[in-house]
Structures are given as C-alpha cells and as structure tokens.
Amino acid sequence: MGAGTSSAQNVEIALKAIDASIQILTLLIKLVQEFKSRPKNSIAIEENYVEAVNDARKSHGIDSDGYFNFGFAGRVNTGKSSLINALRGMKDNDPGAARVGITDTTYNVVNYSYPDYPYVKLFDLPGSGSLARDATTYFSDLYLCAFDCLIILTEGSIGEEELQFARKARSYNQAVCFVRSRCDQDMANLKENCVIEEINEESISEFIENTAEYYKNQLNMNAPDLTQVPCFFISSRSMYKFIRKMPTMLYQEAEFLKYIVQMSLTRRGQL
Ligand SMILES: Nc1nc2c(ncn2[C@@H]2O[C@H](COP(=O)(O)OP(=O)(O)O)[C@@H](O)[C@H]2O)c(=O)[nH]1
Ligand SMILES: [Mg+2]
Prior knowledge:
Blueprint (H helix, E strand, L loop, with lengths): L6 H26 L17 H11 L7 E7 L5 H8 L22 E4 L6 E5 L10 H7 L7 E5 L6 H12 L3 E6 L2 H10 L8 H22 L8 E3 L2 H8 L9 H15 L4
Parallel strand pairs: 1-3, 1-4, 4-5, 5-6
Antiparallel strand pairs: 2-3
Helix pairs in contact: 1-9, 3-8, 4-5
C-alpha cells in the first residue's frame, strides 16, 4: 500500500477486492454448471480451416462434439502436469495423476478426464523447446489447433516460441492464453531475499501487478499483435486448494478458470 494511504482507504480497497472476487466466483460457479453435461453445440470453424482442425482432432482422438477439450502446452518444467493435477483436485502422487517433474520429453500426449465433470478433457502435451521437440514445428506436430482453448505455460518471460504458438492459435481463431505458474515459488524467493516481509494478499497483489506490467510491456514491444492474449499468474498449489475448497491465498486462479470456461462456452455459442 502506498505511503499516505489512510486506513479508511485501505479498508475500501480491500472491500473492492473482495467484491470483485465474489463476482468472479459467482460467475464461475454459474458457468461451470454447463460443464456437467455434454456440450450443446459444436465449435464453428472457418471453412478453410475445417480440414486442418478435423485432422488435428482425429490425431488426438478428440470428440469435439461430445467433450470440452483443453490443451496445456509450453516448455518442459513450466508446470503443465502439476496444473492439470491441481485442476483435477489431485496430488501429484495420487493414482492416475499426471507425472510431474519428468525430464523425459519424448512421452506422448496424455488426456485426463475430470472426476466431477465427465465432459471435460485436459490434454498434457509434451514440453516444447527441447532437443527432442523442434519448437518451429511444435504447433503443427502436436496439432495444437484441436482444442477449445490452448493454454500456454510460460517461464519468467514470454519467449519467441510461445509467441509463435499464440499467433498460430489465433490464426485458427482458437482461444488462447498464457499462464505463468509457480508464482508461490517467486514469492518464496522474494521473501528469502528480503524483498518482501510477508507473503500475504497485499504482497501477492503487488507482485501480480508488477509482473503483469512486465508481461504487458514485453508483448507491446515484441508482439503488439498479441496484446489481447491474456496472461494469468497462478500457483498450482493454490489451484489445488481452491478446487478442493480449502482455505488458501489466491493468485489469479479464479480469473484463469473463468477465462477458459467462458472462452470455451463462447466458441460453442453457449454464452
Ligand atoms: N512450488 C511450486 N512448484 C511447482 C508448481 N508447478 C510445478 N511445480 C514444480 O515444478 C516442477 C515441474 O513441474 P511439472 O508439472 O512436471 O512441469 P511440466 O514439465 O511443464 O509438466 C516440479 O518439480 C513441480 O513440483 C507450482 O505452482 N508451485
Ligand atoms: Mg509434464
């Protein structure tokens, strides 16, 4: 909180933040009900992309009319598998959980279903940017245009290859977003280095504000065509607790979920 901010102003800011969170959560709860049943509509694909998208779906064994499909792409170690586990309310060592911390980059695409949402599938894609995976052909090799929404996990900054994936996704009119996971580790480092005193709502929101500004500037400078692609700052640890309805400090887990749910429903004309 800036110097000179009165306690009345602090309370007002905190109340506004709580109000915004309640609004997001209320909307999220409402939207998520749609995922309890089969998609009502197909995704409309532009005529010149129909063949490529159908090929991509076939290659992943995707039934796009019967299921909502979300793809998780990005470099090795960015937290794709951990996020999928958290979204499924699973610990990394639970039976059936995605394998975490695996440096072997050659394993295949694996899709995971959702215990409470049988019509949702989450696709864990092999990491890009390794010797085993050529970044220039990653998008086409892995048929990344097949999903309702492509979620690109990033590291501290958005690299050229992530920009290319997002650009390609947009050329197919596919919903896409960047996600910077592992933010709890950043916060722990800041505390360790005495940059912040405590990890609390205030320091988290300041961290998100600063990091979001940095990402926005990066996009403005390197990819002005992609400034509409949102970036969410999250932690899979917080996501797990959020999904399990356990108390936790949140980063942008609710905003991220709201976005992907909303994009999928919009593409299917269900919103
Ligand atoms: N603290 C923390 N560690 C994470 C988080 N997400 C992933 N990790 C760790 O980062 C490493 C790589 O995660 P993984 O999900 O396997 O990344 P992937 O290669 O992109 O699938 C593992 O050691 C995870 O435990 C997170 O949100 N917080
Ligand atoms: Mg993985």
